[in-house]
Amino acid sequence: MPIANLANVKTRVLGCTAVLGVGQAITNALAATGPASLTAIVGNPIALLGISVVGALATGITGNILASEAGSTFDRWTNNPKILDNHDLTRAAGEAIAHVLRNEVAKSPEFKAIALSKNLSVRAIDQLADRTSEYWLTINTVGADSSSVFQISEDELTKIFSGNAEEFDRATGLTPEDWEIFCNGLAASEGKSLDAEIVEFMANKLHATFPKAFREVLKHDAETGGKKFAAMLLKLHETALGELKGLGLQNVEILQKLEAVATQEQMCQVMARLDELAQVRELLQRFIDPAAPSLPISLKSETIIQDRIQDFTGRKFVFEAINEFLRKNPKGYFVLEAEPGVGKSAIMAKCVVEMFKRRCVTHFNSQPDGIVSAKTFLENACLQLIEGFHLKQKYPQLPENALENGNFLGRLLGEVSANLGDRKKLIFVVDALDEADLKLQSSGSNVLYLPNNLPDNVYFIVSKRPESLPMPADDNYVLFDLMQHNAESVEDVKAYIHKVARNSAGIENWIQPQNLSLEKFVTVLAERSKNNFMYLRYVLKEINSGTYRDVNLNDLPAGLEKYYYKHLDRMDVKDKESRRRKLKVIYVLSRTRKPVSCELLADFAKEDQLDVQDVLDGWEGFVRPSIEKPPKYSIYHASFQKFLHSQEAVKKAGVSLSDIDDDLEDDMWGDLYK
Asked: If residue 603 lies in a helix (H) or strand (E), which one and from where to where?
């Protein structure tokens, strides 16, 4: 195999890889706040799948140059020694090639059939894949022909800079002939000679899927901290931004978005969202009208949503399941079921904000916030439908009995569904069905009066704990048990820990004295969390604040319930009476139907108001104050309520739950309590 040929191929691959990297960095920087912002820049709210970032860049440059002229800027990179000599860029390309050989070639049924006919073991390709990265690094580009650089067409450049991952994946880059040269060289380096049909299959796969594999390599690195390639991508991004400014790019919005990606951490955040953004665009285009206004969301639901989506990570497999449900079924219920604390509400919040861009009917039940009644749900849902679908003139106010059962909601569903556009869907997102109070609605009715028979193109995405509830009877009812997806959840948990840890000096300072690697910290903490994000939210916060400064990694509590016990054991109290008071106050608060003031809580707990305020301040993180003045308080998460209601959790403090419950039932304000 002539060395010059291999050098030429490597040079072209690196040139292609540089443009691929910049394409993804720039496109996702522009889309960093969601596809709506990218759409606004490009100027076409409907054709999301055809967004041309190159065109947007070109029109943002002084003089409104042609897209092909902007593209020539990136052409110059394909022969820039400073870029081609970047070791990290070379490694990224090698990993992408290995990814194709291992996943697209060796696992292909078609390839297995060819290999069998040629008496070739599939394991031989796996072995070549294992050696690819090392071999790739050894190819010397010194002898490369300067005229053989990677040439990129305007059509390919548009795909590479597409706002849609599927468009990007259709970019091809090098020719099959280039990849045949590489495959033969790789085999020869291992003392092997591959049949021509085998080489042709491998080359065609590399030709068709290298960009997609490169995207996967970047995304995986970003989700695990960006140690390998974030610095390289940031350098490419900065170089591209400098080139564009040199051309005269003056679009303020584009410049602000590109300049906002200025650190490796920010680059990781941008690149980790590659698939997520693609899913959002696909769903927007297929199921809802992206030009339609968003539906109104209640203030309480909005508050819950904003809290739950902080540091959201992963859950791609859940969104894919929802996507599939919407695609395959004419109507129905998708029920997300899981134990407390594993992220049901966060997933539902992300559905509202990212998947459906608030163009869905939204309702979040919450015991701590007093959102527990079917009437509240019916009022919320009906008002969203009336306002969002221009029915205000027909229904200037809700009918007299609209909140007594689900009949009026059913009528609205029929009217709205009959007027939906072609293939569009009416989607409800309703969180925490298990937190609804069934005592507040008619006996024998479905939870929240959810309708049994939905009109076509009406869908409910709902969540609940794994407990028995009176659910609707509908032929299109899909139960998605999140607890059965352990492997995927483990990966999401690890990615979440990585994301929080790499942005936290306190966590880094806790890890270093224990001589722990970040990977060891992530692995052990993921195991101890039992895939519970609420556990991680509490523990990572306390590690960062220094609360766990005297606790080593292996002594951290295992699971959310043990974390709660450990927190009780660590309560800073002077005597048993102080401990009893702290637990009594927080338990009384956990029994409220809605947020209450410190004054009212002190009356119910029969404790001094100053002592109660001190207790509330001491339970920071477990208690949520409202924004009003004076604030009202509620328990942050239902899992903590459940823990407090267990006899085992409080008996050590000498608190009698039965005595407190009797007092609450006898109290004149007992309607505030469950």
From this structure: helix 598-605
Q: Which fold has domain 288-483?
A: Rossmann fold (3.40.50)
CATH T-level assignment (fold) for domain 571-672: Arc Repressor Mutant, subunit A (1.10.10)
pTM for the complete prediction? Answer: 0.57
Tokens 């009356």 — which residue? 603
- Sheet of 477-481, strand order: 361-364, 426-431, 458-464, 332-337, 477-481
CA distances from 461 to 215, 321, 333, 415, 437 (A): 30, 11, 6, 20, 19
Largest CA distance in the chain: 93
Condensed to tens digits (0 to 9), the pLDDT of residues 374-425 reads 999 999 999 999 988 888 889 888 888 888 888 999 999 998 888 886 668 8
The CA-CA-CA angle for residues 345, 300, 582, to 5°, reads: 80
Listed ranges 222-231, 442-451, 615-624; the one with the highest mean pLDDT: 442-451
Q: Residue for token digits 């910049």?
A: 22
For residues 273 and 319, is the Cβ–Cβ distance under 8 A?
no
Q: Where are the domains of the chain?
A: 3-142+150-274, 288-483, 486-558, 571-672
Check if the beta carbon of residue 342 is closer than 8 Å to that of residue 492: no
- For the CA atoms of 62, 66, 70, 76, what is the dihedral angle to 10 degrees? -130
Cis peptide before 211 (omega within 30 of 0): no
Pull the structure tokens for residue 308: 């739950």
DSSP string of 291-341?
TSPPPP--HHHHHHHHHHTTT----HHHHHHHHHHHHH-SSEEEEEE--TT
What's residue 202's pLDDT?
A: 93
Evaluate whether 501 touches 508 at the Cβ level (below 8 Å): yes
Span 435-483, pLDDT tens digits: 888 888 888 889 999 998 899 889 999 999 888 888 988 778 889 988 8
Give just the sign of the alpha carbon dihedral 294, 300, 303, 309: negative
- Residue 366 is given by DSSP the state B
- For residue 126, the one-letter residue type is D
Q: Are 186 and 105 in contact (CB under 8 A)?
A: no
The reported pLDDT for the residue numbered 495 is 82
Radius of gyration, CA atoms only, the chain: 29
Alpha-carbon span 38 to 26, nearest angstrom: 11
